[in-house]
C-alpha cells in the first residue's frame, strides 16, 4: 500500500534522522499512528512543534487501514464517514479531502421472516409494511423531533433506554428506532449509551454518510502526506512501553523494535543511561493516541471510569459480480444485523466487482452472517474472489456513557500528558471522537 512505502521512506531517510530530537524543548512525542495521532501531529507541527510519532506496527492507520486483496479494497469492516460530524470539521481544517459516494437511504428491513421497506425518512416510513398506521404516526413525530434536535445537553445525560422508555409507546416503533440507532452508533446496549450523543449521531446519519473511495486508507495516506510535509518524524515498528512521570512527564521508554531499521533507529535517538527495559528517551510532552488499556499500562495508576468497548463481528466479501444488483442494503429490526454493498457507492473494486460487509453488532458467529448473505445474494459463493471473517473488532473503545459517567478528558492532571482517541473527551462518537480529541489535545498543547 502506498502509505506503507511512504512510511518506510520516512523512517529511513537521512533527513528525518537528522531532525529527530526527542527531549529538546518545544518537542512533542506522539504514541500511536492511527488517525488521531496523525491528525494531532499535523496541528502540532504546523503550530511550530517538533513532533516525533511512534507507531508499534510497520504501517500507519490503526483501525482505519484498508487492505488491498486481488484489486479489492477492504476496510476493517464497514466504515462510513459522517458528513457534518466533528471529524469532517477537523479534516476540513487540516485540508484533508474525503471523497466517495453517499449511499441512498433505502433498503430492506429484516423482521423475523418478514421483509419490508426500511423506514429511513418520512416517505419510506409511510410506504413501509413494517409499521401499522398508528405506528407510523408515532414514528413520524419522533423522526421530526430528531431532525430538529439542537443540543445533546438537553437530554440531561440519560441513557438511550431511558429516553425510549419515556418517549416511545409502541413496540414496533421502538424496535425500529433501536435498529436505526444501532446502525448510527454501532452500539447494541442502549442502557450504556448517552441519549443525546446517540440521537445526535442518528441525525448525522440521516443527513447522509460517505463511503470513501479507495477506502479509509485514502484518508490515512492524505493525513500522512500532510504530516510529512509539515515536518513530522515517523518511527514505525516501535512500541512505546512506558511513560515515566512524577506528576509531570519525564521520559518515554521504547521497546519492541521489530524491523530491520531497529539498529539504525536506535542509533539516532538520544538514549538516557541506566535502564535495561528499553531505550529511555527524555520527553516532557507526550500525547497518547492509543487504546485505553495501553494508555493505562503506559502511565500506571489512573482513575478512569470503566469503559465499555463496542464490538462487531464482520464478514467482508469481495465478489467478481453481484448476483442481485438491487439488494444493496438491509438491517435487522429484531436482530442486530447489518448488510451493505459498499462498492455500490464507493470505488473499491475492479470493474464489475462488488465489496460487501455483513456484520453483527456485539459480535457473533460466521454462520449467521453467511445465512444473511445467502438470502441477499444467492450464488455469492460462486463469485467469491476473497473473503474474510473478523470475529470481534473493537469499533469503539468507549461511547459517550449516560451521566454521571464520562470519558476521560484530553488534558490529563499529569503535566505534559495528553490523550486522544475514540474514548477521549465528550465530543462525538467513533472517528469523530478520535479526531475531535486529537484536535483538542493539540490545541491545548499549543496554547500551554
Ligand atoms: C469494524 C469497524 C467499523 C468502524 N466503522 C466506523 C464508521 O463507520 N465510522 C466511523 O467514524 N468510525 C468507524 N470505526 C472507528 C474508526 O475506525 C476509529 O474510530 C478510528 O480509526 C480510531 O482511530 P485512533 O487513531 O483513535 O485509534 P487506532 O486506529 O486504534 O490507532 C491507535 C494506534 O496506536 C498504535 N499503538 C498502540 N499501542 C502502541 C504503543 N504502545 N506504541 C506505539 N504505538 C501503539 C496502534 O498500533 C494503532 O496504530 C470503525 C472501526 C471498526 C473496527
Taken together, the total number of domains comes to 3
Low-confidence segments: 1-20, 258-276
What does the largest sheet look like? 7 strands, mixed
Question: How many extended strands?
Answer: 21
CATH topology label of the largest domain: FAD/NAD(P)-binding domain
Ligands bound to this protein structure: flavin-adenine dinucleotide
What fraction of residues sit in β-strands? 15-25%
Strands of the biggest beta sheet: in what spatial order?
Answer: 8-7-17-18-19-16-20
Structural class: alpha+beta
Oligomer: single chain
Rg over CA atoms, rounded to whole Å, is 23 Å
**Which CATH C-level class of the largest domain is it?**
Alpha Beta
Mean pLDDT: 90
CATH superfamily of the largest domain: FAD/NAD(P)-binding domain
Brief summary:
This protein has about 450 residues and is an alpha+beta fold.
